[in-house]
């Protein structure tokens, strides 16, 4: 994978190495930003040429987004800036806000992470694209309307399919992100900044949006600053790559070369973590543990009017599934395919409309009839490390909550010993039991969530997107921890993820779900190397991946 | 849109029925025998019997309810026991005072609150915001009948600009309007304080939304983003408060009407309650509740006009 | 801002509460003794706030009046908390269920009745007096607290820590008590102070039209009503009780705002 994507467009780069390009379209020199007295950016220097894609990557809090906002002049109130920001011949950092308003949207465009909230809900998409043109008085109203429609068509929203008179809530996430892009490029800015533009999207949609951005850069000659935490997104798309850590750029260079041979230890750690696969100890699964047959789960959609027929949304339609003692199973699928609905049904959190679930031979029932003895066999770890804990409780109290399921829960010293053991099992210190939960980072919180799931020694744990919200290095550590639990606790699990790259090393068997059904299952190697079902193939084809290490 | 309308109409009908039932139960059933209640404890038995016959109290309860409801629907609100005039006529006379008063107060409160809320949100944390927040804090704490007294003291008794009370009737529109200025102001100022605060906080919530940042990235200034994207999105909480305030102003003016000796709807109810004229009480309370429910219904429709997500909801 | 709100709100609220409590054991003058020759006196060293048309000491009247106002408002808010919060918790624990529907529809219905009119109706049917004023004001506090509680509990029920508690086998009512309610307490404190200030305003209104606490016990509203006829003659008689209402409501509102920012800046209680 040493081939640069630039070679697809030989005309643009012929005879020029990036370093000998003419004056950069955008250049930062020694940019430092402090916010409320603490330094968030330190001595950032970057160049971005027309027609070039520069990726800015790093873990959360490294200052990627701050860099983007500093260029746009949209830093939060109380931020102080030092250093130069040049857009062509214009020095941006000394401009007043009214002067910046004249540049934003015209010479600088920006695309944000969350398409669901980036659009004004009470304005049609056409009007919002048109606003970019009108606010700069670039065209009279009638022509602006035409230009807005053209721009929407350019980003893949042709009027005959998605008319400009639509409102944002009538569009999917991917379509909304296209509208945001249309607003940003309507006046063909020299620089487009995209801040995690695909992080909130499905892999398939992600690939389409990235293709669109790449096309725009190559065809319109814009410079693209692509901010992303995901190295796999960068690979094969960016011309150059800058890696940020704690407000500084630690390494910068041509993307392919840098990914193949990183020089800085931090970059190497990031790449290693992104490629990391935990090592599962070999295990012979025991007898049947979880049996699911013909499971159906639907919920009613709101009625159109009081006399309308109730319409149903079938989230899970006829799932059969079997997990044996100690077996490690992964479930993948695009968002909305029914993974989480299935998980909630298995956990007995929601009533089902058809089919049966049995755990160790006994039926799992939702509601108050659920048998505590049954329930303690199956526990769960959820996605959001911040929403998973009552913010008012100490770690010890949080971890010991499942003791409620025991007829004779340990008290006093025995309880403390159990909490200490659970904390040790997840690599934390027993001293942490007395700390309030807000003192812990996201990764530590997921460890605490795992400790809570383990404390009553369940047979099986459902990990519902349990590593999706974590930074790549923390994610690698948590995956290793989970793999260890198979060794130490003989645990069976169902590991649910939308991210294919994560599940490969964490399961003996992979299930692929699409539209409420399990469409394919098999050993990871078979699923990844010889996918049968079109849904699996589409997922694999769309998923960005890092090139294999050099040599 | 059609579906939304049907849904709202259905719930409007249910609310109206439930409200009428509650009023009927509270007024006619709860106090025991309405006739003895109205006449007091020392009434002669034959007077009570005559009133019972007049009120149709010998009929079973459910028939009385249907009779009353049917009468209300056809505009027959009964005859006032104390004044011996049709309640419908009395209500119409009183509305001629109360409706202009409520409308005037609402308009005045909106005229004050809109710019105040906008300025406070636009200059958040700076002097104009502090001034608006301080003034509204005072406005909310101000009992409107005390404010009325202070206004009378200043503008009627000291300066002699405006009348201290009474209502000359609409034969002389200028005098009638002058008589309503102080009451409308006393009603409007505390309401304006509430409205301005709601608008400010709704605008600040919206200014924190990501679509405002998108708008700024398009080249809109803070002020443009506030006016073009903030105001329309802040409309829903503002409409909610406006709806609540209209109903409050229509009936809640009782005390203000008392201060200014205005022959309005609130004063009619108050007098009817103290005179135990249950016929008037029942009908006027029902009318007021109907007005509130209908205003709420209209507010809901206004939401749908303001927010496309509600219009298209399935 | 938050500092100023607490710094101003706390002493004002404490002053009102202190005056009410002090009046139980001591007042500068006797509020039941008439002293007609000394009537309508302006503020002086003998009567700090002057005297009313019966020659009673206005400062003493205001102190005793604070008692009626606070008692009515506090008990009415207590009634609202006691009934409204459990209803709101129960409704939120099974959102969309029959109980939820019932609670919400009843709420809507109560909100459709003009509160002052109904308060007047209740006190008139049941007879005027402090107890009936409490009832009349308390009835409207129940749906307020039910709605606020439900509204704040609903997003909590969607949080993962509630799922974790359910996986620990806890029943919905226990989760409501153990996980939901403690997280709502700051909000309820803030909403409570606002409702107390609204209660003081409502009590003043009711007693102004003669339906609050009955003579000889003084109340701020009735003091205003009696002062109205002689406002030209002795404005201070009307200014004093009005200022007492204004300052106590202002103090409680400021305290509520300050507490909100102090306890949790994300909280936004309903104010209608």
From TrEMBL, chain A:
Residues 1-22 are annotated as: Disordered. Keywords: ATP-binding, Nucleotide-binding, Transport. It is found in: Cell inner membrane. It comes from the Bacteria. Pfam families: ABC_tran, oligo_HPY. One of its GO terms (biological process) is transmembrane transport. Its main location: membrane. It is a peripheral membrane protein. One of its GO terms (cellular component) is plasma membrane. CDD domains: ABC_NikE_OppD_transporters. SMART domains: AAA. Residues 26-271, 290-540 form the ABC transporter domain. GO terms for molecular function: ATP binding; ATP hydrolysis activity. Belongs to the ABC transporter superfamily. This is Peptide/nickel transport system ATP-binding protein. It comes from Salipiger marinus. The lineage of its organism: Bacteria, Pseudomonadati, Pseudomonadota, Alphaproteobacteria, Rhodobacterales.
From TrEMBL, chain B:
Keywords: Cell membrane, Membrane, Transmembrane, Transmembrane helix, Transport. InterPro entries: BPD_transp_1_N (IPR045621), MetI-like (IPR000515), MetI-like_sf (IPR035906). GO terms for cellular component: plasma membrane. It is a multi-pass membrane protein. It comes from the Bacteria. CDD domains: TM_PBP2. One of its GO terms (molecular function) is dipeptide transmembrane transporter activity. This is Peptide/nickel transport system permease protein. The lineage of its organism: Bacteria, Pseudomonadati, Pseudomonadota, Alphaproteobacteria, Rhodobacterales.
TrEMBL record, chain C:
It holds the Pfam family BPD_transp_1. It is found in: Cell membrane. InterPro entries: BP-dependent_transpt_permease, MetI-like, MetI-like_sf. Residues 66-256 form the ABC transmembrane type-1 domain. Keywords: Cell membrane, Membrane, Transmembrane, Transmembrane helix, Transport. One of its GO terms (cellular component) is plasma membrane. The chain crosses the membrane at residues 68-89, 109-127, 133-157, 184-211, 231-256. It is a multi-pass membrane protein. GO terms for biological process: transmembrane transport. It comes from the Bacteria. CDD domains: TM_PBP2. Gene3D superfamilies: MetI-like. Belongs to the binding-protein-dependent transport system permease family. This is Peptide/nickel transport system permease protein. It comes from Salipiger marinus.
